[in-house]
Model the fold of this input.
Amino acid sequence: MTTETSAVTPMMAQYLEIKAEYPGALLFYRMGDFYELFFDDAVAAAEALDIALTKRGKHLGEDIAMCGVPVHSAENYLLTLIRKGFRVAVCEQLESPEEAKKRGSKSVVKRGVVRLVTPGTLTEESLLEARRHNYLASFARVRGDGALAWVDISTGSFHVMPLTEVRLGPELARLAPSEVVLADGDQADLGDIVTESGAAVTELGRAAFDSAGGEKRLCDLFDVGTLEAYGQFTRPEVAAMGAIVEYLEITQRGKLPLLRPPQREAQARVMQIDAATRRNLEITQALGGGRAGSLLSAVDRTVTAGGGRLLERRLSSPSRVLEIVQDRLDAVAFAVEQSRFSEDLRAALRKVPDLDRALSRLALDRGGPRDLAAIRNGLEQAGAIADMAEGHDLPRLMAEAVTALSGHESVLDLLEQALVAEPPMLVRDGGFIAPGFDEELDEARQLRDEGRGVIAGMQAEYSQLTGIQSLKIKHNNVLGYFVEVTSVHADKMLSAPLNETFKHRQTTANQVRFTTVPLSEMETRILNAGGRALEIEKRLYDSLKAAILENSDAVSQAASALAELDLATALADLARGEDWTRPKVDASRALEIEAGRHPVVEQALRKAGEPFIANDCDLGTAHDIWLLTGPNMAGKSTFLRQNALIALLAQAGSFVPARAAHIGMVSQLFSRVGASDDLARGRSTFMVEMVETAAILNQADDHALVILDEIGRGTATYDGLSIAWATLEHLHEINRCRALFATHYHELTNLSDKLDRVDNATVSVKEHDGDVIFLHEVRRGAADRSYGVQVAKLAGLPETVVARARVVLDALEKGEREGGTAQKALIDDLPLFSAVPAPPPQVIRESGVEKRLAEILPDELTPREALDLIYELKGIAEG
Done:
């Protein structure tokens, strides 16, 4: 699209000028009640939004493509465009058409971009998931060192951590940001890492990543002389934070969000979980996409949006600080024991709105009366909860939270007096300030709503003053409001002292009309009362918003406290309802779980009416690596995952699905369970498996927990066996970590005699009439076979294939017992499958016994009839 503006209308020239400043974004150009899009923007938006594409005039001899969306429903369209990868520049009218006309009849209304909408800068309630953070992140590199900063402008949280490039992928997987800002040129080597996390990539000029400029921007933002009050930040950390602030200034057009002071995080304080492990364990998102089926979905019983976001953070970043874990477990234990108090607390928390996001919208001037009411209602519930907690011997975490709920009386009193119970969504709708709060507003509303009554009152007043009972106050479009008397009383009205109050306006055949200064003023006030009332409300809205923002730190602390209480009581409700127990967490290397269960699988089985078979796991100091064998479908993968999830839940501060659990602090959690092709990056299933295994072997320390399933299965048998063998030895000798290692290579079970910390375990099965019955019980020992043919039969393979597989398997096992037979000789000895004719289909005839049984209704038989029937059926069978 060209920016040539010759021979175009002034309005289109304005559009092209503004569009030139935002070439990478769709321009929502405000025209009255619509946002219009033109040229290529219109074509792209019409296709993405499935709306009509029209045309408006010509440019350079060609039709101008156009489409539009209503302003009142623009948020829904914005969400669609953002999800489809677009960025949108919102261009508003900065003056009214009347103001524009004052500059000349053909003057164009001033317009300007007020906001650049991107995935990481959303704040509107309708554009965000209430129970998930929407992070904007930035990665900076300074002389080989790196740092990652991230912010959620919808809640104000602001964090930063030193980070190597190697750890960038795992940290992005943990945070799941919507957008990541990189310096110009960095997309070439970091872009794949970012996009793999699901985030959009935005490049910013390298000047934005200058640490000196970044420090100044941060100091200006927080109105401090130095950042030392918030911690000792490295140059890369300051650069990453400064780049985020710069990007927010660009996208928000100078209206910076209300950000909390930056918090420095350290990798050593949280359990390290890489991207592959997060996917495999389905911590916050199921493998099929979405929340359903994930651990988060299974354990989330929070009743507030803030509590839901806090739960996701805890599950994504389990703590490695023992004191923090114990405090969280103490809070849950208290809520479990004090069930009545806990339920009352949850009932009160259900009434708590999303304080963080309401506060953020107010700070960005995207709020409304309902956000004011949300702050009021939230603080009101905070006070009620603080009162409820009085007299209880609360654990430290809950006691600190309750303390933050008090001390908001001044703001709360102001909001309670000022606001109606159920305010409208928009300021322009008016009617959100309560009667009696502002005398001037009440007067304006009275004039607006009760103008006739006010005039009637003035008429009575003037009638009494003049002594003329027939005096009337009337209105027409020429004179407006006027006092009217009959000609009989004209002389009296025109004489002193009444002529000083009543000024003559008009004389007709039978009436004389007057006006007064109060009446003229009242007329103006009545006619302007509606607009004046709205202006007063807007002014009061601004003052109430300012009062809230002055107390934003206290409101934010209250919001965090409410989320903390919500999470503690939610996890307690989960523990009571699911029969979970408090784990013992310490600094040891123990992993002792008695009757452990998989929280997600157990819930799924319960819905199907089936029980979950609990199992023990003991990775103590003597044997901290279990080699697990057994057939497919027997539950090996479930067993592996459930123990990893129990360790994760314990360090997240939750009770766990087990009869008892002793968790020695896990520093890193690695999972390689299942695999799939990565065709986009040219990786086969086996290559993906090897890459993930390599990452584990290169990183796992002695406090890590590793779960591996079927290492080496994607290649030839002896290659795979060799790789699995060497991997197990490396975990034992080099990594020296705790591990659950599932395999079909039964040869590996002999390693338990060689490697002193390896113990064998197997999943029990029973074989009956050639079929396998899964018991889902894990016991010590090794499996002697994999029952693959039986599982294939259960899967529904044709009987001819199953029968043929049994023949081949028997021959192979015989050859193995006899010292091994050459593959070619084996193939030569066995007749080809294709030469074996398929057996004719069996014709199943109904027997006499079956026919007789079909005629019987057991509930209608007497004991004697039932006995006679047995003899009858016996006779039919023998005959």
Summary: The chain is about 45% helix and 20% strand. The two ends are 93 Å apart (CA to CA). The longest strand covers residues 758-768.
